[in-house]
């Protein structure tokens, strides 16, 4: 069995580290955009087992890239295609919120399940869907948790013993519980009302729990940043002595960073799931462990 990783240039560094860890070659997928907006995709040499390393932030072109890469790889002899999408797109659109609205989660799941044999992701945003298997009918799907890795990183950074781990809404309760349990910290979860894509309102039922403590704000996704900013402001209003944030997926544009600072957030650390300047938590071990059984005896080669 031969195994290789294929990645886009934007994630070559992360993919190269993973390739070295697994002892498999890493090849780049080239993309060309035609004047009419269509794209051409050129894959590297196909291996019998190919791992497509493709975080699905800014996803629309990337979904087409998977479609075209799968066509080329299968034609060139790939018999097993594994999608490693450290961030999985469209998981939040899991019901029809308005009459006639597409359930994007379902559509994307069915599309990908028809193209690849296995999907691996991290902290998929599954709140009304019980398991990732429901999203990807007929194939294996693994939703890895970044929380143990985040907990280990936090333990190394020596948190103040009074630190309180805070989640911005009820959806964050599982991560908050897991993380607070792993690092042995107090915890609190806010109530959130979303008024629009960028407008949210955050309140704490028991602000006295927060007063006088450094807060560690935890979330899976920061996209518009509205949730993080509103939560930081509510924490500081409740008397938190400082606010630092640790998130899994940093989807916001880096030019927004001054807005977080202005809201009183001292630092933001994210996991290496999408390319981002706040990335500080490396998930190589998590990915290598999940992919161990996909790896044959192929010798490592340089990035081509
Ligand atoms: O407020 P923004 O950053 O746009 O969106 C991210 C938030 O929206 C939720 O679904 C996520 O879990 C996170 O709390």
From TrEMBL:
GO terms assigned for molecular function: kinase activity; magnesium ion binding; ribose phosphate diphosphokinase activity
Naturally occurring in which organism (per UniProt): Rhodopseudomonas pseudopalustris
Start and end residues of each Phosphoribosyltransferase domain: 163-249
GO CC terms, sorted: cytoplasm; ribose phosphate diphosphokinase complex
Family of the protein in this entry: Belongs to the ribose-phosphate pyrophosphokinase family.
Any GO BP annotation: 5-phosphoribose 1-diphosphate biosynthetic process
Sorted UniProt keywords: Kinase, Nucleotide biosynthesis, Transferase
Protein name: Ribose-phosphate pyrophosphokinase
InterPro entries, per database record: Pribosyltran_N (IPR029099), PRTase-like (IPR029057), PRTase_dom (IPR000836), Rib-P_diPkinase (IPR005946)
Residue ranges annotated for the Ribose-phosphate pyrophosphokinase N-terminal domain, each copy included: 15-113
